[in-house]
């Protein structure tokens, strides 16, 4: 067993593991008696180990039992703690998260989890929402939402204007360039943002795609126009291809990318229309292909999280998100509310070294709803 120094990140401390703090020492003495304690920190010698064990056995007899698993999240300078566990340590890593425009969506939750693990956070915000987002940050409106488990506030190193529908400035129609919502903004196409990040920071380690838009999402597929369908594909799936295409050259080897998908990619969700189900299916297919190509080209891992419904501001555009949340609660194996931070924590794991062999995967974070074949709240089962 090794006593490792505390790290920034999410630490899982198991029942037979020990946590040393300035106030208390938790340890299973039955475990101690079966293993030689090896201490990684300088200043601990074999003789001091023996003295430590002897004194510890007097204060904490072998009958002490521990059954809980403690998850601890830290950021920056951690508390003075030495602990067993598997750390999610992203210190020294830089993440670019595309699609953060408020403090109540999955993109924000992922940013917080990565920050809690020690990563430096850059975000790309849709140009028309940029001013409101930056103003809210500056005035402290997000301060409570920014609070990390150690009490500090998540720091966003830089906010970049981004519209991932356009790869280069040449792709932008004149009416969009002249639109007042884009007035004053520059360098916001995918290529330009990647170049700006390179100029500012040289490289990144983590790329997160938290983007989706379907202008005709409320229309059934049979009523969706070609333009609406292709717009959904462009904004919700090809945008990930484009981001990785332009950011891959500045990603450090061993890095990771992540996107967000939805169960409509493989199951019929009436009302989730306008080509959005097709866009999510394309995103999942692209995840597998890109995992091969980016893996071979840059040793970059590519995964996607299939998240359950969340009542975010963006999701409310669907029009019946509250019903989707109620349905999930009634029918999922885990009958509880799905929290955004649960998706964030999964993201932190997937982009961390702990998931170094995981790529090309769709990871479900939906309380298990994807496993169900029957709706338990159906009148057939309730009458």
UniProtKB/TrEMBL annotation:
It is found in: Plastid, Chloroplast. GO terms for molecular function: enoyl-[acyl-carrier-protein] reductase (NADH) activity. Pathway: Lipid metabolism; fatty acid biosynthesis. It catalyses: a 2,3-saturated acyl-[ACP] + NAD(+) = a (2E)-enoyl-[ACP] + NADH + H(+). Its EC number is 1.3.1.9. The keyword Membrane does not apply. InterPro entries: Enoyl-ACP_Rdtase_NADH, SDR_fam. Keywords: Chloroplast, Fatty acid biosynthesis, Fatty acid metabolism, Lipid biosynthesis, Lipid metabolism, Oxidoreductase, Plastid, Transit peptide. It comes from the Eukaryota. The keyword Disulfide bond does not apply. One of its GO terms (cellular component) is chloroplast. GO terms for biological process: fatty acid biosynthetic process. Homotetramer. Belongs to the short-chain dehydrogenases/reductases (SDR) family. FabI subfamily. Catalyzes the NAD-dependent reduction of a carbon-carbon double bond in an enoyl moiety that is covalently linked to an acyl carrier protein (ACP). Catalyzes the last reduction step in the de novo synthesis cycle of fatty acids. Involved in the elongation cycle of fatty acids which are used in lipid metabolism. Required for normal plant growth. This is enoyl-[acyl-carrier-protein] reductase (NADH). It comes from Zingiber officinale.
């Amino acid at each position: 067993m090794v006593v490792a120094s505390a790290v920034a990140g999410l630490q899982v401390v198991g029942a037979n593991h020990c946590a040393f703090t300035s106030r208390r020492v938790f340890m299973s003495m039955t475990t101690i008696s079966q293993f030689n304690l090896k201490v990684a920190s300088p200043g601990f010698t074999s003789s001091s180990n023996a003295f430590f064990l002897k004194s510890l056995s007097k204060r904490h007899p072998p009958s002490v039992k521990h059954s809980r698993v403690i998850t601890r999240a830290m950021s920056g300078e951690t508390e003075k703690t030495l602990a067993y566990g598997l750390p999610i340590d992203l210190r020294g890593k830089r993440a670019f998260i595309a699609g953060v425009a408020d403090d109540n969506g999955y993109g924000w939750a992922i940013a917080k989890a990565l920050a809690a693990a020690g990563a430096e956070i850059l975000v790309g915000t849709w140009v028309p929402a940029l001013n409101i987002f930056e103003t809210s940050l500056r005035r402290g409106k997000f301060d409570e939402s920014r609070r990390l488990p150690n009490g500090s506030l998540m720091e966003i190193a830089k906010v970049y204007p981004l519209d991932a529908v356009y790869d280069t400035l040449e792709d932008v129609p004149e009416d969009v360039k002249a639109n007042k919502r884009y007035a004053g903004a520059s360098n916001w196409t995918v290529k330009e943002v990647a170049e700006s990040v390179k100029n500012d920071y040289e490289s990144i380690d983590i790329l997160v795609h938290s983007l989706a838009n379907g202008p005709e999402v409320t229309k059934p597929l049979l009523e969706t126009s070609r333009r609406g369908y292709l717009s959904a594909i462009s904004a919700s799936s090809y945008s990930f291809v484009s981001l990785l295409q332009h950011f891959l050259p500045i990603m450090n080897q061993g890095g990771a990318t992540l996107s967000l998908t939805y169960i409509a990619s493989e199951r019929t969700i009436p009302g989730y229309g306008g080509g959005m189900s097709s866009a999510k299916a394309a995103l999942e297919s692209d995840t597998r292909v890109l995992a091969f190509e980016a893996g071979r080209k840059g040793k970059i891992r590519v995964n996607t999280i299939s998240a359950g419904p969340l009542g975010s501001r963006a999701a409310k555009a669907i029009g019946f998100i509250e019903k989707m949340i109620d349905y999930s609660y009634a029918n999922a194996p885990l009958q509880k509310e799905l929290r955004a931070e649960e998706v964030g924590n999964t993201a932190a794991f997937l982009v961390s070294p702990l998931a170094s062999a995981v790529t090309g995967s769709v990871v479900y974070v939906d309380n298990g709803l994807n496993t169900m074949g029957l709706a338990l709240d159906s009148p057939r089962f309730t009458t």
